[in-house]
Design a protein that fits this description.
mainly alpha; 0% strand; globular
């Protein structure tokens, strides 16, 4: 009834459906079991940021409408990161710096995936740099490279409308 007064609090965030779909994919156990990515905050962030970066690269291919969707997705990422870090007990003096670092990490990964998607760099090397701090086993690296290639193919085939609804 009063949603017109509190629209920001009650309305669906523009990037929420796509972010939720990305988060769901990042939570899948195969990344941490077969892919041997550490099941830690850093490891989970690496998977989330990698999938998010791939999605941003795909959205950019749809021109202005894709860029608008990419901005909404990035804004949702920022809102979620702020919320999650507040729940972890982080306060205002350090929260902004931490979120800026996370955004920088996402931007770095987006640049890596732009090059990989345009075949300017080796896909497997990009997977290694995007997901792992240490040297992964060949089986783990191949698993993640295969899964990310599969995800890229799904993203490429999806329409912009489907992506904005989190369907890919």
């Amino acid at each position: 009834m009063l949603d017109f007064l509190f629209r920001r609090l009650t309305a669906e965030w523009p990037g929420a459906p796509l972010f939720d779909a990305i988060s769901d994919r990042a939570r899948r156990p195969h990344w941490y079991v077969e892919g041997k990515i550490p099941d830690t905050l850093d490891g989970r962030f690496a998977v989330l940021a990698t999938i998010l970066a791939l999605t941003i690269v795909r959205l950019e291919r749809d021109g202005e409408a894709g860029n608008t969707a990419s901005v909404a997705l990035t804004e949702r990422f920022i809102e979620v990161m702020e919320s999650e870090h507040r729940e972890l007990g982080m306060g205002d003096p350090t929260l902004g710096k931490t979120v800026r670092r996370l955004i920088g990490s996402l931007a770095r990964r987006t640049g890596l995936w732009r090059s990989a998607a345009e075949s300017e760099s080796d896909w497997v090397a990009t997977v290694r740099e995007s997901l792992y701090k240490d040297t992964p086993t060949p089986d783990a690296l191949n698993h993640c490279a295969t899964e990310l290639r599969r995800m890229w193919n799904l993203l490429e085939r999806a329409s912009l409308d489907d992506l904005k609804q989190g369907k890919f």
